[in-house]
Amino acid sequence: MSGSQLWDDVDDYFISHLSPDDEALRAALRDSEAAGLPAIAVTAAQGKFLHLLAQVQGARNVLEIGTLGGYSTIWLGRALPEDGRLISLEYNAKHADVAARNIARAGLERVVEVRVGPALESLPKLADENPAPFDLVFIDADKANNAHYVEWALRLTRAGSLIVVDNVVRDGRVADARSTEPDVVGSRAAIEMIATHPRLSGTALQTVGRKGYDGFALARVLG
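Above: the chain's sequence. Below: its structure in token form.
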């Protein structure tokens, strides 16, 4: 058995026992595929991890940078109280339309708001609204801008908030200091910002599974 097949089998075992899906989640993936969206959504195990993080945080306000088809959005939205709020930023209008339908099908349209446009344009507008601090920020958009997204997350959070940056390992390429690939450069910049910023304490973990070899960074905002 190949290593990747073993990773898939282990993922399937964990998901079947710990992160079973339902029709709303299955439909979100199915409709995303039918609409031609890239198959880069988090796995069910990763979605459940985000869900648990939000619950452990007691999160009432969540910011997501990168909506895609709304699969991770549903997992996060389900962790919030009825009066909670999740703002998700999506660059692609087609993706946002698919996500909005998926979110409505899951019964979360009162909790979730999808905003369309480049995140680096949407974030200053959001800051101008002076929203309540976000308890959790999930960054899963274009990797070249990861450090910029972490900067904005810091502006929009409070002491004790969590920032999650997905897909930072890049099949191990993140360790290559000579790389000029934008996704690697952006991921390294985010990691180095977390390492040196006085208001952040963080770590990063490598993962394997149905999404291959990757990983995420997790940072806590300090006082």
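Helices lie at 3-18, 23-34, 44-57, 71-77, 93-105, 119-128, 146-155, 182-196.
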